[in-house]
Design brief:
The protein contains 11 helices and 22 strands. By secondary structure, it is an alpha/beta fold. It folds into 2 domains: 169 residues, Lyase, Ornithine Decarboxylase, Chain A, domain 1 (Beta Barrel), CATH 2.40.37.10; 253 residues, Alanine racemase (TIM Barrel, Alpha-Beta Barrel). The strands form 4 sheets. Strands 5, 15, 16, 17, 18, 19, 20, 21 and 22 form a 9-stranded mixed β-sheet that branches. An 8-stranded parallel β-barrel has the order 6-7-8-9-10-12-13-14, surrounded by 6 helices. The relative contact order is 0.17. The chain binds ligand LLP. The site of ligand LLP has 23 residues, from helix 10 and helix 11.
Length: 470
């Protein structure tokens, strides 16, 4: 079955957003509707502050590029999910942070302290979650090609394993005898739901590498019923990312309720339905995502209704927000460097980072909002193209940006970089990764140290015969 959803921006009704990029949209009280972190303000000298810290001071103290994470925004987003689930879903619920959006010990610890769980997709994310203090029973392990080691680590720690395909099942069946306890499983399937987002980040349609094909659902459920080592307690589906429509999520709830009826009918003790993540955020003023409250309410009501119609006991409702949980809490600071003016064509302003700290523009043609840290209110009379420093013509962070007159050494702020920037970063051109500071109450704490060029040589080996002759 393929359900194609009509385009319904969830939120034409929820517009307008904040006026200036640094202003908070108090009307809707949902961090994903703001361009900037909640604590953003302009100090007495007209300079930008986040978490009580002047941004140009942070750039001076910690260097650039610098990721800055606002604790208040991150906590507020966690609470928005938790409270909306409690308010709108009559059964139990849990939001799991999709840590692929930004995985670190500090973020894990904050999210765990707000009572959320976590979705990991590799042994690296799993280790970060466990060391960051996330209880194993609140972690799920995803992946369309999990290694034996990843499965063994998850099963031994008591993490819930989301089986994606028959290969997962074969590997787990081999590991199970040595575990001495049943493995708790969730089963992911492709729901056959289309949504309107970039094709690289769509996962719900049938031509997807993730999850069991819907035709396989019954055979795999039957197979699992005969596996003494397995305890299937949940079903999962995820339709994609940066989605502004609500209808696909309603459709998903109905498809999941059908799957729940099937699984329960075959005797599985399924009590969790995990509807994935996907809620979009505002990157530029024209973006109009639903609020977290609207999204949760839609999903919760659709699921409760679908279960009622099928006379099913209400399952625990799980969801997996990634982007909408961390993106707006994060910003990136750069220092402006060279300028190339091509008369009648374009002015390139280069920053000291680029596609290695933010690969989204070159990968998905994504748009961002940027400001000068110390002159956010000055008249934006120049049109510039913000280029990265990598050896790649496509390494452009923002095209045709209106900026006040600027000079080399000025600090530039790119907003909403908290998700899928650090986590998708690279060392292309052997450029070290930026540091990350957590800000709040006028204090900044380093939570990820800056890589040094020396760090990049850590894994290089030079065979003796190639050693430079001295
Ligand atoms: N659950 C599963 C199984 C997922 O695959 C994802 C995202 C999420 C939850 C979280 O979705 P979110 O709430 O963040 O939309 N790198 C791309 C996004 C890739 C999303 C991959 N999966 C980007 O930068 O736009």
């Amino acid at each position: 079955m393929v359900i194609s959803s009509a385009s319904e921006s969830g939120t034409g009704r929820e517009s307008p957003g904040a006026g200036q990029p640094w202003e908070v949209d108090r009307q809707w009280d949902s961090p994903n509707r703001n361009l900037a972190p909640l604590t953003t303000c302009i100090d007495a000298e007209g300079r930008l502050e986040v978490g009580g810290c002047r941004l140009s001071d942070l750039a001076r103290s910690y260097g650039t590029p610098l990721y800055v994470l606002d604790e208040a925004t991150l906590r507020s987003t966690c609470r928005a999910y938790r409270e909306a689930l409690e308010q709108f879903y009559p059964g139990p619920s849990l939001a799991l942070y999709a840590s692929k959006a930004n995985s670190s010990l500090a973020i894990t610890a904050l999210v765990a302290s707000e009572g959320l769980g976590l979705d990991a997709v590799s042994s690296g994310e799993l280790l970060t979650a466990l060391r960051g203090g996330m209880p194993a029973e609140r972690i799920v392990l995803h992946g369309n090609n999990k290694s034996r080691q990843e499965l063994a680590l998850a099963a031994a720690e008591g993490v819930i394993v989301v089986i994606d395909n028959w290969h997962d099942l074969e590997l787990l069946a081999e590991l199970a005898p040595s575990l001495g306890k049943p493995v708790q499983l969730m089963l992911r399937f492709t729901p056959g739901i289309e949504c309107h987002t970039h094709e690289y980040i769509r996962t719900g349609h049938l031509d997807s590498k993730f999850g069991f094909d819907p035709d396989q659902l019954e055979p795999v459920l039957q197979h699992l019923a005969g596996c003494g080592w397995a305890r299937l307690t949940g079903l999962h589906a995820h339709i994609g990312s940066q989605i502004f429509e609500l209808q696909p999520h309603r459709d998903l709830a109905a498809v999941m309720a059908d799957a729940l009826a099937l699984a329960c009918g075959l005797g599985h003790p399924v009590s969790d339905l995990n509807l994935g993540g996907g809620l979009g955020i505002r990157y530029v003023a024209s973006d109009d995502p639903p609020t977290i409250q609207t999204w949760v309410r839609t999903v919760a009501e659709a699921l409760a209704t679908a279960c009622q119609q099928r006379q099913l006991e209400l399952p625990r409702l799980l969801c997996e927000p990634g982007r909408s949980l961390v993106a707006t809490a994060g910003i990136t600071l750069y220092e402006l460097g060279s300028r190339k003016q091509i008369p009648g064509l374009r002015t390139y302003l280069s920053v000291d980072g680029g596609m290695s700290d933010n690969p989204r523009p070159i990968t998905y043609q994504s748009h961002y909002t940027a400001l000068l840290a110390d002159r956010p209110q000055a008249e934006a009379s120049d049109i510039v193209t913000l280029a990265g420093k990598h050896c790649e013509s496509g390494d452009v962070l923002l095209k045709d940006l209106a900026l006040p007159p600027s000079s080399s050494g000025d600090v530039l702020v790119v907003l909403a970089t908290g998700a899928y920037n650090a986590s998708m970063g690279s060392n292309y051109n052997r450029i070290p990764r930026p540091a990350c500071v957590l800000v709040g109450g006028g204090e900044a704490e380093l939570v990820q140290r800056r890589e040094l060029p020396e760090d990049l040589l850590r894994y290089d080996l030079l065979p003796a015969r190639l050693q430079p002759v001295t």
